[in-house]
Automatic annotation (TrEMBL):
<dbReference type="InterPro" id="IPR000566">
    <property type="entry name" value="Lipocln_cytosolic_FA-bd_dom"/>
</dbReference>
<protein>
    <submittedName>
        <fullName>LCN15 protein</fullName>
    </submittedName>
</protein>
<dbReference type="InterPro" id="IPR002345">
    <property type="entry name" value="Lipocalin"/>
</dbReference>
<dbReference type="GO" id="GO:0036094">
    <property type="term" value="F:small molecule binding"/>
</dbReference>
<keyword id="KW-0732">Signal</keyword>
<feature type="signal peptide">
    <location>
        <begin position="1"/>
        <end position="20"/>
    </location>
</feature>
<feature type="domain" description="Lipocalin/cytosolic fatty-acid binding">
    <location>
        <begin position="34"/>
        <end position="171"/>
    </location>
</feature>
<dbReference type="InterPro" id="IPR012674">
    <property type="entry name" value="Calycin"/>
</dbReference>
<comment type="similarity">
    <text>Belongs to the calycin superfamily. Lipocalin family.</text>
</comment>
<dbReference type="Pfam" id="PF00061">
    <property type="entry name" value="Lipocalin"/>
</dbReference>
<dbReference type="InterPro" id="IPR022272">
    <property type="entry name" value="Lipocalin_CS"/>
</dbReference>
Length: 182
């Protein structure tokens, strides 16, 4: 279990260099976008993610924006009998909906959102040893519609990923007391 926690964090953060132009949400409204989201599906070519994807469950993401426009992402991933929490800070790139994690050499793009039901994020990790890409489907409620899931699955090949790299995450249930981010 002690080895699984760092590996899970690495798997979740492991993402690919974008080869093609990634479409972005025009004029992202950060006030509408901020708040609680549930990560319900992920497609990635990250080797750590691929090893762990069948054991993963839906997670909770809390997105907020700093006064200077930077994006703060708090995540809670359920593991066995407890939750693993971590926080990431992305700097505004100067283009609405595009954020960079300078220390991790990572790009985060908001590809598409309707603000009240779903969002699709694209993350790219620019590693010399293993560049990777991930697409994430975030929803406001834990239940995802078949139509929304189908729409997400149609995006996967457009980003150079394949269906076998997809994890549709089962619901994780209630968040235990003491997670601090309920």
């Amino acid at each position: 279990m002690a080895v699984a926690l760092p590996n899970l964090a690495l798997a979740l953060l492991c993402l690919l260099r974008a080869g093609a132009q990634v479409p972005m949400q025009p004029d992202l409204d950060t006030e509408k976008f901020a708040g609680v989201w549930h990560v319900t599906a992920i497609a990635s070519n990250c080797s750590l993610f691929l090893k762990m994807k069948d054991e993963m469950k839906s997670s909770m993401a809390i997105i907020s924006f700093m006064s200077e426009g930077d994006l703060a992402l708090k995540m809670v991933w359920p593991l066995m009998d407890k939750c693993q929490k971590f926080e990431l800070l992305f700097q505004q790139s100067g283009q609405a909906g595009h954020y960079v994690g300078a220390q991790e050499k990572r790009d985060l793009l908001v590809m598409e959102t309707d603000y009240s039901h779903y969002a699709v994020l694209h993350e790219a990790q620019h590693s010399e040893t293993e560049p990777s890409v991930a697409l994430e489907l975030l929803i406001r409620e834990q239940d995802v519609s078949p139509q929304l899931l189908q729409k997400f699955m149609e995006l996967i090949p457009t980003m150079g990923l394949t269906e076998d790299m997809l994890a549709i995450l089962p619901k994780s249930g209630e968040w235990p007391e003491g997670t601090g981010w309920q």
